[in-house]
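Pilot study result, target chain (276 residues):
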Amino acid sequence: MTLKNAIKRTFYYLTIILYVLTIVYPIYLMTVTALKPTREIFKNPFGMPESLYLDNFVNLIVKANFEVYFLNSILIVLISLFFIVLVSAPAAFVFARYSSRWNAFFYIYFLAGLVIPIRLGTISLLKMFVGMGLNDHIASLILINIAVGIPLGIFILTDFIRMIPKDLFDAARLDGCSEPGVFMRVVLPLLMPAISALAIVVFIPIWNDFWFPLILIKSDSMKTIPLATALLFGQYRTNFGLVFAALSMASLPIVAFYLIFSKFFVKGLLQGAIKG
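Predicted structure:
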């Protein structure tokens, strides 16, 4: 190995190590802080806890009812993702494989949803949900997330379907498949990597959304994780151990969801490469 290659490799590994530290250290700091009482947090903010202090997590579940907020957030995410994929996948198939003047118009119409911030219509949305009787209900948040996620889903899945060879569609039609059959038997299995990527991209904004729960949700039983966590900050005194315990628990579904879907994403890419 030459000196030049050794320097390049050393620089490469140092960059990777530095990048990993920027990710791992905040997680470490958040976790150890959650295991300390408030007094110890200010006394020893960066070190390991003197003893395993689990009262923050116990109080979070027993007194703060965080399991209710977790369930609300999980329901919102899962239902929103289901309907985003349910609408986006067939629509992307139509936009990718059929050419017409109306298709181009509606495709651009959906893409406009990626450009125009939905928060500009907050007042109109609030009036609409009040009129529909959905104010102060997680159904309003689900509808907003679906409306925001469908344009992104169509954008990602349409480009992916366009990369599928046309011969696969022709072969399926020769075998007697109808257009719904072509979508279900040919397109949908090949879309799994793209759907996994879409799920990863959409999950985090839905899980971390604070704006619309703050505007639309009032009752305690309908609150989500970000809204409930923000309420832990007091005006004069804050239990930082409780706050970091909430942040630690809120991070677990994100990490688990990413690990699960990234596995399917990579697996789908490898299968496509082998079969191709």
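One observation from the pilot: Residues 40 and 149 are 43 Å apart (CA to CA). A full batch analysis is planned for the follow-on phase.
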